[in-house]
Amino acid sequence: MIPARRAVLERVARAVLDLPAAKILLVAIDGVDGAGKTMFADELADVLIPSGRPLIRAGVDAFHHPKPVRYRLGRHSPEGFYRDSYDYAALTRLLLEPLSPGGTGRFRRAIFDVDADVAIDSPEEQAAPGSILLFDGIFLHRPELRRYWDFSVFLHVEWARNHRLRHHPEQASLRYSEGQAMYLRECRPAERASMLIDNDDLAGPFIVRSP
C-alpha cells in the first residue's frame, strides 16, 4: 500500500480504536458515488485486523429498495434517487439497532441484490463482543442514520473528475449528481462526519479535519 494512504488509514484506525472497547462500534464510510468508499472501508479493515477486534463489513447497497420503489418518481428523478433508493427502516431494524447498545447483537448484513433486483435471505449472525462494524455507502449522514454512528468518515472528491458519473448517460448522471447535491445541501455530511478526508488522489489522500 502507498505510504501516504497507509498513514491516513492508520490515523482512522487509531481514532476508532481509541473509542470504548466494551461496546460494538458502528463506523460509517460516507461519500458521493465514486469517492472510493468501499475500497477505503476494505483497506481500513485490513489495517484493523492486527488489533484482534472482530470486524463486520457491510454496505448500504445491500439494503436497496426494489425498482418500483426506487423509481416511483421516475427513472431520472434526482429526488427519487435521494429519497427512495434505500430501505432505511430495514437497515436500522436488521443491522444498526441490533448492534447498538441494548440490542441483541443478532444481525443481518444484506436483504437485497440490486443487480438482480431481488430480495435475498441472508443468514442471521451473532456479533461478538467488541466487534467493529465498517459500513460504507452514500447518504450515511441522513437523520435516520447519523445517530447510530460511533465514528464516521466523509470522503471528499471533486465531482468534475468523478469517472463514475461521467460515464453515465446524461439523464442518469443528472439523477445521481443532483440527488447527491440534494443530500449535501440538506445533511452537510462533511461537517457532521467525525473525520473529513480528501480522497481525490488515491495515492495521496489527506485528512482535512479530525477529532
Commentary on this structure:
With 211 residues, this protein is α/β, with parallel strands linked by helices. Helices cover 38% and strands 18% of the residues. The chain has a single domain, classed as P-loop containing nucleotide triphosphate hydrolases (Rossmann fold). The chain has helices at 3-17, 37-48, 67-70, 78-84, 88-99, 143-146, 163-166, 170-187, 189-192, and strands at residues 25-31, 55-59, 106-107, 112-113, 118-119, 125-126, 132-136, 151-156, 195-198, 206-209. The strands form 3 sheets. The chain has a 6-stranded mixed sheet. Helix 1 crosses helix 2 and helix 4 (78-84) packs across helix 8 (170-187). The model has no long low-confidence stretch (mean pLDDT 93).
